[in-house]
Structures are given as structure tokens and as C-alpha cells.
Amino acid sequence: MTATLPAPALDAEETAVESTPAGLSHTPLLPDTFVVPSSRWTRPSTRMRELLRTEPYLFGPGVYDPMGAQLAMYHGFKAVYFSGYSFAIGHLGTTDMDLYSSVEIADGARRTVSALRKFQLTQAVGDPEKGVAPRHLDIPPVVVDMDAGYGNIFNVQRTTELYVNAGVAAAHIEDQVLPKRCGHIGGKALVPANEMVGKLRMARAVADDLGNEDFVIIARTDGISAVDAPESARGLDLATERALRYLDSGVPDLVWCEFPTSDRKPVEDWAQAVHRRFPEAEFAFNWSSSFKWYRDPNPITFAQLGELGFKFIFITLGGQHAMGHGFSELLSAMAERQEQGYIELQRREWEEGRDFPTRSHHQFSGVPYHHEVGQLYDSARLGREFVEELPEDKVV
Fold it and tell me: Could you give the CA distance from residue 173 to residue 217 in angstroms, rounded to a whole number?
């Protein structure tokens, strides 16, 4: 399988640049005084597999747009979870009931992956005019919700193709009937297990056909809280039976069981039951924002989940809640104190010792990068007077 994408060829002038730090490389998308992590050319799914192999667990904050993913990348998170429910709220202002199409969420994921690649470039420049040093950030692999596949196996075929070609690292498919619903909404019903296995097999076949054998596939079951399924079993027994059926197919890299509460015992019991048949099985876990974790006297920790075999952990609506909370605080302050409410926000943003990258939207969105590259290509009309020859102490 192909593990690494080819790095861009360097001409004689670029190869002459001395003292390139280990793990960093030049790219034709930057002047040769700047570098990016060499992992830029590692396929995201390959990088995710390496992280799953080497990390006690991999955590991905739940986001729904490119900017949220960039913030997660800025703060050093090694993965990003592109949440379907968050996308439904952020894109349509509605609940998670299969109301958006595969093409819509695939395009959102595509734009997010593209934004992360661009953000790596903007951060690699910093802001030379203001003495802001470059930051060399690895691009986190993006895991994307595929709901129940948006139809039959041929809908899964198209969606997987869109995801793989977008640079998505992984996707999860669930076993609900269509239209699916959020895992914490009542009345869920399951498709037959063989239908779900067919969808998983199709996703694997598409990724392999596109040359990405590392594409990570996550099988999700809503068996615990399903009220209707072809099997006679219900609850934890059904969720265990479904997980074993999916692992029997040899397709999923991770299995995700959606739990209806924050209780740790069902989590432990399910993991142990699956491990009796598949000792090496690895799992995904939704540390759901639907649960009132602050009321739980002993909430299960990420580290404890990792010890149980939960290798990918995420909070689906984390970004959505944070945005709603932060923006509501600003709106409340401005409703009460008008411009002073916004001035208070700026004081918090620029407080000594704090690091809010968006406080300078100029730098966050990449204005210095655009000036540097505009000068490099001599065709962007971005004000060449802005960029002067870099002093020696600013050269990477």
C-alpha cells in the first residue's frame, strides 16, 4: 500500500538552502526561507493509523466547519472529528435526522481538509513584519460522519469515493434504518446485520479501488437503545452481537457502540464481551455532550477508555456548544453594555499570557502568507511594499 504521497520536486536553488531542520521540508507554495512538516505529504489515513498504533488513545474534538478544525489544529490536537449532528445544526439549523445529503457533508469535509492544508502554510509563515515566529503544525487527520450511508450500497459507494478523494482519513457508518436519527433520540430501528456488512464491504472496496488501503472504517451500532431490529436480542446483548457480526466480516478497523447514558459499567461490559471473541479489537467512543458529565461523580476518563481498547475518542458537539456559549456571552454583554461588551471581549483576547489565535484575524486567515506568496509569484497585487527582504534572524 502507498504510505506517503510524493513530496514536490525541488529545483537547484531550493536544494541549495542549508540547515533545513529535521522533519521539515520545502514546498513550492512557500518562499524557500520557509518550511513545513514533512508529514504534509503523508496520506491522512496513513497518519491516522500510525497515531492509533502509537498513542494510548486518539482524541478528536468535534467540529462542523473549517475554522473549528483549524483551531483544533492550532492547539495541537492530533485528530479532528467532523460531526454530522454539528453539521446539521451549523449547515441547516436543524437536528440530526438525515436532512442533509451525502454530497453536502462530503463538500463540508473537503473544504475542511483543504483549509487545514492551507492553515499549515499560513502558520509556517507566521507574521514576519510583526516578528511572529513560524509555527510548524502537523495536519490532523479528519474523521467524518457517514450516518447510515445515505441510502443503499451504491449510495455508500458514491459517498466513500467523495470522502476518499477529499482527503478524509476515516469515516463511520451506522446500522440504523433510513432516515437515521441521532443516537440519543428515541425510536431507533436497525437494518439487518448483513445489510450493514454489505455497506462496510462496499466502503472498503471503494477505498481500496482508489488506492487508499489505509482508509479507516468505523462500524457503529445503535443496538443498545434500538427499539426495533430483526434479532430477538435487545440492549447490551444486541449491541454485542452486532459488534461481533461486523468484526467477523474483517472490514471495520474500529467498532463504535453508541451508549445512552454516561454509566461506565455498560461500557466496560460491552468492551469485555467483544474482547472475549476478538481480544485485539479496537473501539471508538462518543464522549457525548448529551450527557451531563458535570453531574457524574465518577466520569469515565479518556485514559480509562484507552485502557479498555477505545482508541478513538471524540465529543461530537463540543465545538457547537463552545461556539454557542461564547457567542451568547458576547451577545448578552453587548445587549447590556453595547460597545463595552465587545471591548471586554478584546481585553480577554489580548490578555497577557493568553493565546487566542483568532484575536488577530489578519494572521489567522493568512494575510502575511498571501503577501509572501504574492511576492514570490509576482502577480497577486497584494502590496509588494508590505514584504521586504527578511532579516537574517527571521530566516527559518
Answer: 8
Measured CA to CA, the distance from residue 57 to residue 241 in angstroms comes to: 25
Q: Decide: helix, strand or coil at residue 97.
A: coil
The alpha carbon of 220 is separated from its chain's Cα centroid by a whole number of angstroms, namely 17
Between strands 254-257 and 36-37, the pairing is unpaired
Strand partners, 310: 283
312, 218 contact by CB (below 8 A): yes
Longest dimension (CA), the chain: 74
Which member of 88, 143, 182, 284 is catalytic? 182
Tens-digit pLDDT profile for residues 200-243:
999 999 999 999 999 999 999 999 999 999 999 999 999 999 99
Distant-in-sequence, close-in-space partners of 363: CB < 8 Å, separation ≥ 6: 122, 126, 127, 130, 132, 357
C-alpha–C-alpha distance, residues 381 and 364, integer Å? 20
Distance CA 146, CA 175 (A): 11
Strand partners, 143: 81, 170
Average pLDDT, the chain: 90
pTM equals 0.89
CA distance 93 to 87: 9
C-alpha cell at 217: 472504517
Measure the N-to-C terminal CA separation of the chain; round to a whole number of Å: 34
Three-class DSSP category at 313 = strand
DSSP string, 103-118: HHHHHHHHHHHHHHHH
Identify the CATH number of the domain defined by range 12-319.
3.20.20.60
Q: What is the DSSP letter of 336?
A: H
d(CA 241, CA 261): 20
Q: What is the dihedral of CA 322, 327, 332, 337, to 10 degrees?
A: 130
4 backbone dihedrals φ, ψ, rounded to 5°: -135, 135
H helix runs in 278-338, sequence order: 302-307, 318-337
Q: Tell me, yes or no, if 257 is annotated catalytic.
A: no
With the CA atoms of 260, 261, 265 and 267 taken in that order, what torsion angle do they form, in degrees rounded to the nearest 10? 50
Provide the CB-side half-sphere exposure for 391 (13 A, CA): 8
Q: What is the rounded CA–CA span in Å between residue 74 and residue 18?
A: 28
pLDDT tens, position by position, 286-299: 998 888 999 999 99
Sign of the torsion angle spanned by Cα atoms 373, 135, 35, 116: negative
